[in-house]
């Protein structure tokens, strides 16, 4: 009886800690972890539908691809804009931008945040590459294509990496605009624009199916949510207060820190 009562007490204590917003592993961390899991659910569903070649999904993909391809063939300027965008915000340039941010964070005295950026970008990129091999989906095969791309199709690497980079940069730089509503709106708008338009550029150029791009967006969001939850745990372990990540970034103190060698 005493053993059972002690077990119930421990279980209640664990649950109360998970739901306590002031506890180091409290409400916000719990919600972040649950959010990461919930975002993975639609990705798993999309992946299963792609693997199973679900006819309604294939028809939807084909109809959207045909519509975009027809428009692209009649509008060369549109193709030019999409081509420039897809190269500027491709995985390579975005990874270079992430490296620049990592160096800047280290110089600013935020090595743990720099590690989070590296882990998020690397984990998402490796996961995307592995899933491409596992799923092995072919890219659209269109008559008179306006662009070409090598490799497998699902998930879209451009959509995935754009979402990773947009999420990372958003959560890193939000501390600098946390007191400005216009600043937050501008930063959020820029992040969403980069992720969305980069994904759409792949459909517009006929090198990805729509479900590839949606899968890339969802997977990228899930990876950012999961690593942000992990970073929150890391912060809690060092005794720092919990952060409202979507408003003030994953490390609000960043805006108050000075670069190495700078004056406080």
TrEMBL record:
**UniProt keyword Acyltransferase present:** no
Task: Tell me which UniProt keywords the record has, alphabetically.
Answer: Membrane, Transmembrane, Transmembrane helix
Transmembrane helix recorded as keyword: yes
Q: Where are the transmembrane segments?
A: 25-54, 84-106, 113-135, 155-174, 186-208, 214-234
Superkingdom, taxonomy of origin: Bacteria
Question: Where is the stretch described as Disordered?
Answer: 237-264
Basic and acidic residues bias: start-end ranges: 245-264
Q: What SMART domains would the database entry show?
A: acidPPc
Chain ranges of the Phosphatidic acid phosphatase type 2/haloperoxidase domain: 114-228
Q: Which InterPro entries match?
A: PAP2/HPO (IPR000326), PAP2/HPO_sf (IPR036938)
Tell me one Pfam family matched here. PAP2
Stated name of the protein: Phosphatase PAP2 family protein
Q: Which organism is it from?
A: Micromonospora aurantiaca (nom. illeg.)
Organism taxonomic ancestry: Bacteria, Bacillati, Actinomycetota, Actinomycetes, Micromonosporales
């Amino acid at each position: 009886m005493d053993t059972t009562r002690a077990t119930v007490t421990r279980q209640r204590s664990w649950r109360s800690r998970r739901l306590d917003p002031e506890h180091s592993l409290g409400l916000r961390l719990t919600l972040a972890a649950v959010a990461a899991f919930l975002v993975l659910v639609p990705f798993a569903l999309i992946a299963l539908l792609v693997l199973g070649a679900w006819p309604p999904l294939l028809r939807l993909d084909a109809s959207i691809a045909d519509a975009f391809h027809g428009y692209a063939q009649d509008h060369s300027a549109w193709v030019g804009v999409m081509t420039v965008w897809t190269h500027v915000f491709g995985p390579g340039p975005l990874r270079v931008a992430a490296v620049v941010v990592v160096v800047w964070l280290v110089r600013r005295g935020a090595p743990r945040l720099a590690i989070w950026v590296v882990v998020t970008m690397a984990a998402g990129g490796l996961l995307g590459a592995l899933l491409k091999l596992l799923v092995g989906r072919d890219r659209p095969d269109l008559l008179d294509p306006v662009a070409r791309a090598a490799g497998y199709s699902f998930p879209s690497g451009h959509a995935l990496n754009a979402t990773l980079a947009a999420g990372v940069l958003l959560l890193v730089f939000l501390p600098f605009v946390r007191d400005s509503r216009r600043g937050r709106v501008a930063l959020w708008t820029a992040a969403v624009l980069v992720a969305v338009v980069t994904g759409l550029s792949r459909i517009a150029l006929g090198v990805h199916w729509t479900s590839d791009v949606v899968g890339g967006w969802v997977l990228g969001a899930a990876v950012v949510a999961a690593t942000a939850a992990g970073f929150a745990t890391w912060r809690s372990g060092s005794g720092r207060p919990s952060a409202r990540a979507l408003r003030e970034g994953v490390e609000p103190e960043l805006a108050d820190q000075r670069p190495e060698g700078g004056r406080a």
